[in-house]
Structures are given as C-alpha cells and as structure tokens.
Amino acid sequence: MSDSIERRARRRAWGLVLPGLAWTGLFFLLPFAVMVVTSFARREGREIVLAWSLQNYVDFVEKSFLLRGLVVSLEITALVVVISVLLAYPLAWIIAERVPARWQRTALILAVLPFWTSYVVRSYAWVLLLSRNGVVNDALLSLGLVSEPLEMASTRFATVTGFVHFFVMLLTLTIYANLVQLAPNLKRAAADLGANGWQTFRHVVLPLTRPGIMVGAFLTFVLCIGDYITPQILGGNNELVLPQVIMLQLGRRADFPMAAALSLVLMAVVTLVYIAVARWMKMERT
Amino acid sequence: MRPLLRALPWLYLALLYTFIFLPVVVLVLFSFQDGRLPVPPFQGATLRWYGEVLSDSRLMAALGNSFLVALGSSALSVLLGFLAACGLARYHLPGSALLRGVLIAPMTVSYLIIALGLLSTLNAAGLPLSLWTVGAGHVVINLPLCFAIIYASLGGHQVSMERAARDLGAPEWKVMWLVTAPMLMPALLAAFFLSVTFSWDEFIIAFLLSRFDVTLPVEIWSLLRSGLSPKTNAIGSLVFLVSVALLLVLEVTVFRKAGRR
To answer: Could you confirm whether the keyword Lipoprotein appears in this record (chain B) (predicted)?
Structure first.
C-alpha cells in the first residue's frame, strides 16, 4: 500500500521533471554531442565527411592564424579582467561605504542602467565615441591635447574599452553584494585594535572580499573570451579573437568541423580556468 | 590635504559614472542629429530619424519578431522551469543532484557554442532555420535561469499550505496552479522578466539560427554594415527605453514587494 503511494509520487515527480529534461536533452545535450562528433569530421568540398581524425585539432596547433586567435583572446581577456576589477572595486566600495544608505539602491541601479541597452547597440555607441571624427577626438582636438585625430576605432584599445565598460557594471554589482555582507563588527574590531582606515581595508576588508572578486572575475573571463560582437564591431579585422575565427570558419568557408573543433578548444580553456578557480576557492576556505 | 582626500571618492564616483553613461548619452543625443552623420558637431534637433525607424517595415517586423520570441520562449522557460523545480523540490528522486546539474548545465557554456551545436544538428537533420529554432535556442539559455530562481524560492514554508489543499481534496494540478504558483509569483515574474530581457537582447543564437525572419539585434547588426547613421542611434535609443521600462516594471512589481515582506 505505502509502496504504491510512493511509486505514484515518484511517477508524478518524473512527469514534472521530464519536460524540462527532455528539452535540455534534445536542444542542448544532443547538439553538443553532434558538435563533438563533427569536430572529428572533415570538410570535403561542400560535404562533411565523418573521418574520426584529429586533423582539425592538429591544424589548430600548426596553423598560426588559428592559434593566434586563442593567444589574442587570452591577452585581451586578461587585460579586460584586470582593468575591470581595478575600476569596479573602488566604485563598489564607495557606493557601499560613502554613499548614504538610503541612496545606495539608487546609486547601484544608476551604475548598471546602461547594462540594459542592447549589447549590439552599446558596442556601436563606442564606435561613435572612438571613431576618427567621433566625440572623443572632437573633445581632444578642441582642448588642444592632440593636433591630429587619434586612430582609436578598430584597435585593441577600442575592444578593451568596450569590454571594460560592460564588465565594470557587472563587477560593481558582484563586489558590492560581497561588501555589504561583511559584518560591521569586523571593521569595528580592527579599529579597536588600532588599525587605521587603510590597514583595516588591507588586512580585513580586502581578504574577505577576495572570493567575491574571484567569482566576478571568472564571470568576466567566461563572458569576455566567448564574445563575438564587441571584438567584431570595435576591434575591426586587424587581429581576430577566437570567436571571430570560429565565425569566419562558418561564414566564409562553411567549415563546420573546424568551427566545432575551435569551439571545443574555447570550452576546454574555460573549463581549465574554472577548475583552477574552484581549487583556489577551496584552498582559500580551509 | 584633508578636504581633497575627502573629495576623492566623490571625484572617482563622478568619473566612473561619466564613463558608464557616456556611450548612452552620446547615442541618445545624436539620435536627434539634424544631419547624415551621428558625430560632432551637434547640428540641432530633429525627430526625423525616429520617423524613419518607425516607418521602416524591416525594423518593425524584426521588433515584432523579437517580442514574439522573447515572450514565447520566456513563458515556456518559466513553465518548464516551474514544473522541474516542483518535481525536484517536492519529491525524492534517485540522482536528483545529477538532474539538477543537467538542467543547469547550459548556463556554463557560451552562447556561441550552444548556437553552433544547434546549427550543426539542424543541418544534419535537414531542418530549416526559422523563428522557431531561435525560440528553441532561447529556451535552452533561459530554462536554467528560470529553474534556478524558482527552485531557490521553493522552500519548506509553502509545504504545509500545499498539504492543506491536498487534504481538502484538491487534485495535484490544482494544488500547483491555485496554491504553489500564486505563492511563488514574485519568483515566477522575476524569472519571466529576466528571461525576456535576455532573449530580447540575445544576438549570436538569433544570428546563427534565423534566416529570413530575424530579430531586432540581428537587424541592427545588418544596419551597422551600412556605416554610422543617426537612424541606428534612434533604434538603439528605443531599445534602451524598452529595456529600462521592463526593468522599472520588475523593480516596482516584484522587488519592492519582495523587499517589503
């Protein structure tokens, strides 16, 4: 009797979970498996032939323009993560510590408001600012700081600026959440023990917010290294990041196997960094 | 020295807010540009570009498609996420940790990879690209989010009410529809609106999985190829307005209420 009730409950639970599970299986797990298999295939003319060969991965290592994509991606992402954290931390700290409590929510909403412009449009807006006859050059020229307009659009500088703009907002949010969770007692205790503001920050606040920084930085890393739009609109075609190289394989050459292999390389890099961050977090906690 | 030191945080605040808002301000300002190029000098205000956007049938069709895909895929994501969350939070299933992991998994993979996988599969199966395929992709990215939000708010405090409803003879679907769902309304709305904003702005999946019927970000993308134009600024400003309106709705209806309780 009780067994049958339990069995009925279990069947009902499966009935509830199954639709979502089926969707994930059909439109995520299956496509992913197809992609892994495709990465071992070969393109012959317009046909894709399953050859079970590692040729795509060998090509990735041997053809310098493919490998170069990964290197450029890593360089840009590292720059973006470091600059974004350095800019966002003080902002989050000021909002948490200096802005009066009743204005903090407003300050935070304002800080992330442009987050909600269309992603494509936001990159385009930076083109308006950085182009040869754009707003920044116009300001610099009229202030007499430069005599010739600077070439800023279609450079790595532009890509990094566009990315940093996006991730400063994201990191401010995550770091702020971490900062307001700190017990005020800890700071008071530090002050009682004779620490000045800087020492309290250096030895109490900063170490305690390090996990929050790491999580935010990891999120920045993942979103930055996998993004195609910002480098494509702002960086131009001078140096391609890995997602641009992947899209090139698709768009110009219809080389699905190569695109799949490169995507899996991208994913492997992200996974490696994830494992490193997870291990670090574990060490930090013990 | 002292007053300078005290002013420093405010100076920094002002500088960073300028950095954060500069692109948006320039975008909106030059959407009123009375000239062909959205660059300085500002030549005075006109609404001409907004008129051109509103009378551009391709842009308006893309706008409609975006709304359709965002609302449809978000509704389905919330429904699937809600059902799965109920199943996993209320019953003991073997391997429930693994099931949760599978449901959350798409969150950890970049959109480009999800799009590419779907594209390869559709190609291999010989299925055509359409708004439906874009919507299917958007459910993939939003289902984990909806599931996580709803699962997190399905605590023990609603269980006794569900039991009471069951004792009074309500069948299981009535318990979920009339008791559980209304109690979870803030979480359901938050999940829905967040999904809408993500789907509404998503580019790479929509770009790779659509052919003739495109969504707004994809249409804006092709507009960018024709160079800088105040028209792009105008449509960008409109998109910003819609997103902020959605955010305000969410803030006023969901978070304020949740905070007050």
So the answer is: no
